[in-house]
Amino acid sequence: MDYIYLAIVFPLLGLLVNGFFGRRMTRRAVGTIASLAILGSFAVSLVAFFDYLDAGEAARSIILLPWISLPPLEISYGFLVDGLSLVMALAVSLVSFLIHVYSTGYMADDDGYPRYFAYLNLFVAMMLTLVLADNLVLMFVGWEGVGLCSYLLIGFWYKRAAPSVAGLKAFVVNRIGDFAFLIGVFLVFWLYGTFRFTELRQSVETVALAGHLPITLIALFLFGGAIGKSAQFPLYVWLPDAMEGPTPVSALIHAATMVTAGVYMVSRMSFLYSMTEVAMLVVACVGAFTAIFAASIALVQNDIKRVLAYSTVSQLGYMFLAAGLGAYWIAIFHLFTHAFFKALLFLASGSVIHGVRGEMDMRKMGGLAKYMPHTYWHFLIGAMSISGIPLLAGFFSKDQILFAAFTSRPGIWPHAGMVLWVVGVVTALFTAFYMFRQIYLVFLTKPRFDTDEIHPHEAPASMIVPNWFLAVGSVFAGYIGLPALFAGILSLPNVFQPFVSGALAGAGHVAEAAHGAQELIKEVLTTSISVVVALVGLGLAFYLYQVRYGVTEKLKKAFAAPYRVLLNKYYVDEFYNATFVQPGRVMCEQLSRAVDLGIIDGIVNAVAFVIGALGQILRPIQTGFVRNYAWYIGGGAVLLVILLWLGLGAK
Amino acid sequence: MESIVTYSLVLSAVLFTMGVLAVLVRRNPLIMFMGIELMLNAANLAFIAFARHLDKLDGQVIALIFMAVAAAEVAIGLAIIVSIYRFRRDVDVDAVNSLRG
Asked: What predicted TM-score, i.e. pTM, was given to this entire model?
């Protein structure tokens, strides 16, 4: 498996070729090279996957090159190949490949075509670095690298103001989280003297420090980084704005891969998190709160991509909820299925936007199903999957999260499981409602745009075909990790859990080993509730937006105050603006006036003034007459001779 | 022997003073130029006189090098004077003061 680094090399080569020569090549060549590079990464991951199975699923740490060697500090370009990193590498490269292909169609008319694919390839290289790294520092390189690509791609249309500002916001908000992450990394080294996951795991598990304050601190600081990268409350604000970037970017970076880095990191460090119940509960609560908070905002948004953005924030909340309960494999499983259906939803929304000439306001859509039947099916499959309609991928993964919440009894707050479960169920209701609200507003009901003016059309084949692959994934990805109940009925064993669990810590306080009759009853109960909730959400959307079309206007007036709060996203952006951004700006302005203009510029100006004044004194000497200069020379020579003569005479 | 060196040095000093005066007093650049040449050759004369007095060749070698340098200097100096003349139609040294500080 030593060749695993090739998965990173291929996209980097793609970046170099497209970055340097892209402008001189045809668009077809640029798109093909970029897509092939990612296909290469996928092939490498696939070969590594089979080798891993052949090798009896033994985790391997491959050191490619030394990087920093300052004993006792040893950091290398090392890659860790185990179930967890392979699942991530496969999902990342596969979804990236499909999105690259889609992009060749979506970006076909854009001026920045080569630049776009160069960035996209760099992103994949960085994401694979993040998931394959065998130490925290190399992981941080990938972590920052994907952040950089996110910034570059959000602000891809840099000539317009909004994307530039959104890119900057994403970068700055992420920096806050990354700072916490860095502190966590430093604390890890301070406490354990190593950055490598395998060594770290050994030290953590052999030195019994469970519940020890430093471990809790490390876990919380690292989680701070995850909050920023994975857009959790209170640092989620950048993700909805990130929708200013091209839609495939939203699908790839801001839905399927990069934003899941936090979940991956928490799972990778699960051996550490499992030692501290406090941090675990914080993770779970932040996740659950973010899930319901973002879902409630998504209920009333009108921008087609913004709904999906809040939906992403909400689903990431689910993943952290699962991770915080100790059900790491379920978090990764939901991450895996979410990558398919959320990428599908975004790409389908991209097809919609493409088909109606850039319109993003759902109030100006409607009835598009008959114009774009493929896209309608894609969106419908994605929506059903995310809403938890039975037997689709999202149903199985979300159901297990809710089941894990229902059965967990965290030691420090035994009722937390039940509370989190209720929050999760309400979020599921919201999810089903806002997804089908979107289906009705966009594809069904009657058109609310000028049919003479706009002629919606189906997307080209390069955009439809990748979506069908994702649609297949959104339906069937769940069948590799079925819950016990369905695994029994369908006699399909859960292969996902044993595959990734080697890299994860023990199950924590989630009862999953014992699948006795009582557990089965609980599972039937929670599953039925999930199904009912999903159908209620669907039905509510059907009732409000189809049966009694137009009733929502009356509801808006009846509940004006809560509606306005939700529409304005709880005024969080305004709150941040007033508490952090504006004071920061005022402080910077004051500092720039006092320190920069006063002191720094003052010193420079003073030096320049002194030199100028000296020049004024010496200026009259320079008459410009050659003869005067000759006089100076001659006079000087005579003076020298006299001085010498006097000097000699004195001796 | 002593007297030849003394006479040579006196002649050298006289020539040098004449050169300095030419440079400082005259306004025609060509005459000033001749003054410079005069100063250089006065120095050459002194070198050669000392070379003979000390019975060493160093002074004569220096004098040869000076001649080469003086030739190059003449070429450059004349070129500058010609271009100043072309530019201003006038070579009065007192009128050329555009480098005044």
From this structure: 0.80
